[in-house]
Amino acid sequence: MSATSLSPSFSPCHHFEMAEPPFPPEIEREIFETTALKYPTFAPTMLRVAQHVHAWIEPLLYRVLVIDSEPIALALLSAMSRKSPEFFHNAVHHIAVPLDTSTGVPNRLFSPLEQVISLCTGVRSFGCMNAFLNPRFIPIFTGMHDLQRLSCSLEVLFDTLIDEENWIDLTLPFFNTLTHLECFDFRPNSCVFVQKLLRLPKLTHLGIPEEYLRTAEQDGLFATLAECPRIQILSFQWDYENLRAYEAMKQPHIYDSRVVLAVSCGWEDWEAEARGGLRYWSEADDFVARKRSPQQVNVFTL
To answer: Origin, by domain of life (predicted)?
Structure first.
């Protein structure tokens, strides 16, 4: 999502409506929407075609929001003053805030951006780095009644440690709707907490740091996985330079085909998957399917 596409000063130019459109309205709309979703960088230009096309395409500009710069942040704040809460609820499906201490979004915009995100109650996937996350997002996530995918640090979200008993309330409503969870946290004695994550009611995909492969409690983790047939992927995330993780995955006790060792995905992969591309989780699904063939049964590295 570019800053241009959300520019607060952008508006459709004057135009002449066609008296007899070349296609029925429903087909014309499908053509424009399909094109805008497939080629999102072209969508702002399509706003100028006609007033009715502008009405169709503008919500699609907000479907996937990657808030990673001050211009985009300011454009969203401007949109909040002009758009209804219903617009944000219906239009925004995916949000990522990949902000760290080196990004150009000033801290003074963090609180207003939280207000914008709180309006996006129809969000299905959300990812966030630690610099922007805080416990105020707990009620925001609770208001997202169809939140299915979450990528963040639960320690930062709850302002606690994951190895402290009962400080993270996994009975909150948004945990009950999650199907995909990337938990960025690791503590040497927190495998019990990960075992609880595996038992979340709708969870099918869980990503955790590869350090869990080298804990004394890992046998209990794999035993719990064996008791959770609903889980389709347990992904240990690593980087190519960490050879210890690769060696750990070659241990004979790791027999479950749902276990994969995957390179931690960047936010570009997150956005690509949000837009319907084949990245991270979808590639992991395909990888596990291939692993289950007789020729690939002992391969674990994605």
So the answer is: Eukaryota
**Tokens read off for 203:** 């969870």
Both 93 and 163 in one domain: the answer is: no
Q: Is 209 inside a domain boundary?
A: yes
Q: What are phi and psi of 81, to 5 degrees?
A: -80, -15
Domain containing residue 4: 1-61
Tokens in use for 136? 């105020």
Which amino acid belongs to residue 122? G
pTM: 0.81
Q: pLDDT value at position 244?
A: 62
Q: How does pLDDT run across 129-141, given as a tens digit for each residue?
A: 998 999 999 999 9
Confidence at 2, pLDDT banded by 50, 70, 90? very low
19 vs 197: CA distance, rounded Å: 58
Count the residues in the chain: 302
Farthest-apart Cα atoms in the chain, separation? 73
DSSP H helices, the chain, are: 25-38, 43-46, 51-61, 70-82, 85-91, 110-119, 137-142, 154-158, 173-177, 191-198, 218-226, 243-249, 267-274, 280-291
For residue 60, what are its two tokens?
């699609």
Q: What is the pLDDT of residues 155-185, one digit of tens each?
A: 999 999 887 766 899 999 999 999 999 999 9
- The number of folded domains in the chain is 3
